Amino acid sequence: MQETQAITIRKTLLPISLRWFIYPFVFLFCASVLGYFTYLNQNLAKQIQVNASIQLDLSTNLSQVQQVKVKYLEVLSLIGQIDPNLPGITLSALDITTSQLGEAVLLQDYTQALKILPDLKSITEEILANQTKIATEEVVRLTSVIETNLAEIDLLIGNSLVVTDQQLVQIKDETQPVMDRLELARQCQQVTVDEIRKRKAEVGDAQKQIVIKLGTKRLMMYENGNQVYEMPISAGRPDHATRTGDFAILDKLGTVWGYWQIWLPQWMGIYYAGSSENGIHGLPYDRAGNLFWKDSIGKYHVTYGCVMPNDTDMAKLYNWSEVGIPVTIIN
Asked: How many angstroms separate the CA atoms of 46 and 50, rounded?
C-alpha cells in the first residue's frame, strides 16, 4: 500500500517539475516566434510606406517630365522659326538658357526645368519679333530695288513684265506673312538681275565678272575674260564664313546702315544671308566716324560674312560694277 502511494506521488510530481523546466523554453520560443512575426509585420508596413512614397515620387516625376516635354516642344516649334544667319540677332541668351535647361534635365531636376522654360520661351519670342521687324524692313528695301531694276529693264528692252503687277501687290500686302513676302521679293529681285545681265550681253556690253579667292584674300575684276584689276580683301571670320559659289551683284546702294550698328560704305549685295544680304563694301565706321578692321585687309578674315576691300579699291570696284554682273567666290 505504501509503495503504491509512493509511485502515485512520483507520477504526480514528475510532470509538475517538467512543466517548470519546459515552460520557460516554450514561452521563449513563442515569444521569439511572435517577435519575428511582429518584426515581419513592421517591416512589411515600412516597405508598403516606402513603396507608396516611391510610387508618389514616380508619379510626381512623371507628371513633371510630361510638363517639361509639352512646354519644351512648344518652345522648340518657336525656335525652329529663327533664322540663325539673320544679321542683328544675337543668340547668346538663347544658347545660355537652352544649356541651363539641358543641365537641369540631365540632373533630373524637373522643378528647375519648369522654371527655366518660360524664360526660354520669352527669349525666343523676343528674337522672333526682332526678326519680323528686320524682315519687314528688308521687304521695303527689296521692293525699291525691284522697281529700280524694272525701270532699267524698261530702258533696255522696253518691257518690264518679268515681274507682274500682281507680284508687286503681293510683296506690298502687309496682311500677308512677312517671311512669305520676303521670299517672293527675293525671287523677283533675282529675276530682274538675271534679265538685266542677259540684256546687256545681248547688246554687246563688256562682259564683266568678279572673282574672289578667300584662300589668298584677293578680289579680281575681269572684262571679256581678261583681268583688269586685283585688290586685297578681308572676308568672313570663321564663325561667319563668307559663302562660296556663283552669285551676282544684286544691288548698289551707296552707304548703308548695317544691322551690326555700323555704316557700310559703297554697298553692293551679292547673296542673301538670313533676312538680309551679304555683300561687298568698304571699311565700316561707327556714328563717331571710327574706322574698323583697316589693318586686316589682305591679312585676316574679320567680317561677319561680307567681302571688304580698302576704301580706295572699293571706290574703283563700285564705279566699275553693275547690277547683274556675276560674282564667283572660291576657296
From this structure: 6
CA distance 23 to 310: 112
Identity of residue 51 = N
For residues 162 and 241, membership in a common domain is answered with no
The whole-model pTM stands at 0.58
Indicate the SS3 state at residue 178.
Answer: helix
Residue where one domain finishes, among candidates 159, 180, 202: 202
Number of domains forming the structure of the chain: 2
CATH at residue 321: 2.40.440.10
Q: Report the C-alpha gap between 317 and 327 in whole angstroms.
A: 12
How far apart are alpha carbons 282 and 233 in whole angstroms? 10
The helix/strand count (H/E) of the chain reads as 6, 8
Distance CA 199, CA 157 (A): 7
For residues 160 and 112, the answer to whether their CB atoms sit within 8 Å is no
pLDDT in tens, 219-270: 999 988 899 999 999 999 998 899 999 998 988 888 887 766 788 899 999 9
Q: What's the rounded Cα separation, in Å, for the pair 25 and 29?
A: 6
Evaluate the CA torsion angle 209, 214, 215, 217 in order and state its sign: positive
Q: What is the pLDDT of residues 3-47, one digit of tens each?
A: 444 444 344 444 545 444 444 444 454 445 444 444 444 544 444
Of the residues 146, 177, 202, the one at which a domain ends:
202
CA dihedral 256, 258, 263, 267 (to 10 degrees): -40
Query: The domain containing residue 318 runs over which residues?
Result: 208-330
Determine, yes or no, domain membership for 90: no
